[in-house]
Amino acid sequence: MSKNTTEADVAFIQALAELLNKNELTELSVKREYGDDDSLEVRVIKQANVVTVAAAAPAPVYHAAPAAAAPAAAAAAPAAAMPEDPAQHPGAVTSPMVGTCYLAAEPGATPFVTVGATVAEGQTVLIIEAMKTMNHIPAPRAGTVKRILVEDGTPVEFGAPLLIIE
Predict the structure, then answer these.
(1) Is the same domain home to 36 and 101?
(2) Residue limits of the Lipoyl-binding domain (predicted)?
(3) Are 147 and 115 in contact (CB under 8 A)?
(4) Judgement on whether residues 23 and 55 belong to the same structural domain of the protein
(5) From CA 144, how far away is CA 120, in angstroms rounded?
(6) Which of 18, 31, 101, 140 has minimal Cβ neighbours within 10 Å of its Cβ?
(7) Alpha-helix residue ranges (DSSP H) falling in 41-109
(8) Residue 36 is part of which domain span?
């Protein structure tokens, strides 16, 4: 497959993920034929709750407060003022695709980033495996990694928050 076909496949998968959400489906399976011995099989599965991914965060304290109590807690403790939904945080790095998230290049290797690490714009912060292709996810901006919201080997869906860079 050419590079354009791969980019088209990513766009196709993103469109399937949007279709899944828009129609409140939990699973979608499609086979796309390109020609002799060349096809793409995609199975998009929506996890029951995206918070499951965020619940694996090293500091789940930010999710403990009920939504109604969040503004009062933010006024009382500005240092802990984090949005209830990590995807809404201005420093959130979200998944550009459906796949499996890896924090290191290979099992047992040093992670690309850790909480407190300083990253440069464009630096690889993690990898998402989709269709047996390892996709390096770059930091969209320079800053400090404040939270890592996924664990190594965790399945993620399109738009799921992966980490926070401030």
Answers:
(1) no
(2) 90-166
(3) yes
(4) no
(5) 9
(6) 31
(7) 51-54, 70-76
(8) 3-45
